[in-house]
Structures are given as C-alpha cells and as structure tokens.
Amino acid sequence: MAKLILSMDGLVLKEIPLNKERTSIGRKPHNDIQIDNLAISGEHAVIVAILNDAFLEDLNSTNGTYVNGQSVKKHVLKDNDVVELGKYRLKFLKDAPDMSASNTFEKAFVSAPEAAALGASPRAHTETMVGFAADASVTSEWKAPIDAAPSSVGEPMGVVQIISGRNAGRELDLSKSLTTLGKPGVQVAVITRRPHGYFITHVEGDSFPVLNGKQLDAQAHLLGDHDVIEIAGVKMEFYLRTPASGA
Predict the structure, then answer these.
(1) What does the angle CA 13 – CA 19 – CA 22 come to, to the nearest 5 degrees?
(2) How does pLDDT run across 10-52, given as a tens digit for each residue?
(3) Buried b (16+ CB within 10 A) or exposed e, 151-176
(4) Which has the closest alpha carbon to 51: 185, 153, 186, 199?
(5) Cα distance between residue 187 and residue 203, in whole Å
(6) Cα distance between residue 79 and residue 83, in whole Å
(7) What is the reported pTM?
C-alpha cells in the first residue's frame, strides 16, 4: 500500500497510509490529513488513489501545492515524489513494485486513424487508456502488464460502447484492472474492475462525469447494466456481456 511521510524541517511527524480512494489535505479539522498552519488552506489539496496509482490535485489553495519544487495543479505521483505545502513535506512512497516500463498514466496517445478498433490491440495488457480528442475522436493506449488477471470462465464482461460523436458504435472491453476514459486537461475518469463489479471514479477536471443524467461526486460509483456515462462531452453506454456458452 502506498503511503505518505509527513515532515517539517527534516523532522518526521507522521506516516499516513493511503488506504482510502480520496484523501483530503488542509487546515480544517474535517480533512483526512489536517495541517494546522495558516499557510495551509482550509481545503488545500486532495489525493485520489486508484489501485497502485495516486493523483494529486491542488484545490485552488492560496499558497499553492508544489511537487519536487514545481508548482502543480494536477499531478500523477511517482515513488519518492515530495509534495510541498508551506513548510511541510509529504513524501510519497509507492510500496507495490512498479513493473511497468513507464508510468501508468504517461500520455503517449496514438491518433484515431491509427488506432485499431477499441480493445483490439495485440498488446492488450492490464491497463488501458482511452482519450477523446477535441473533435470527440477516440484514441487509445496500452501499457506494459502489471497484474493482468483474465476474467473467470462464464463471468460477464463489462463493456463500454460509444453512443455519440463520430466514433459512435465503437466498443471497449473492460477486461483490465483499470481503464481510463476522457480527455486529459478537460475531464478524466477511471473504471476499475473489482471482484464485486465495475466502479467509475472521477480523477481530473473541474466538472464531474455524468451518470444517467446525474453528475457524480468524488466517490466511486458502482456501474449497472446499461448505465449511460458522459465524459468530456462523449456519451457511452456501459453493459455486461455474458460469454457465449459452448465456445
């Protein structure tokens, strides 16, 4: 499990495991990590943890959030990154070994004309990223395997089908542990595959994805068969596909 080491002036104050999907940081008492210092905003920043990845977002704090000396608004945390909030430091330690050749969410999109039908890549590994360009075209990326776990025989497979834009009709099998949907810098969400279903969680963007006409909040939401999701202006339908018997 990933964790944070809180320190000030070189003195370690606390070790915080990232055992929640959303960990808030700020001066007010309701935060998961409360730092009672006037340099820290009431709600200063938040860390969203999805599987082995963690996303840091500054919540329009007065004095800003820095990672390794650089001001950030949104940042994918890497092992040993140091988050700086005033005089306080939060060192991010990623316990689980990272076997991928590069960071899971490194942006290296291919253009829609070059991408095969969604999910048809010969390198369909554990983690899949699907992005929507400004014209609502679809791009996709497959990363190196980390902990691929094929579905059990006979278990329904989650699928998303694009139902708006010029890519309407395209489908993506949610066979991986984590699938990222959206347009970086605009709106990004992830669908995680868990033993008890598929869950969608907001990751990036000022506005949250819409599920069946209602805007989601910061928590993970269980997806139901034929739910309609809207992310970055693109509508898609989630459904469960039962494997054909006798194959």
Answers:
(1) 95
(2) 888 888 888 888 899 999 999 999 998 889 999 999 999 887 7
(3) eeeeeeebbbebbebebeebbbbbbb
(4) 199
(5) 8
(6) 11
(7) 0.50
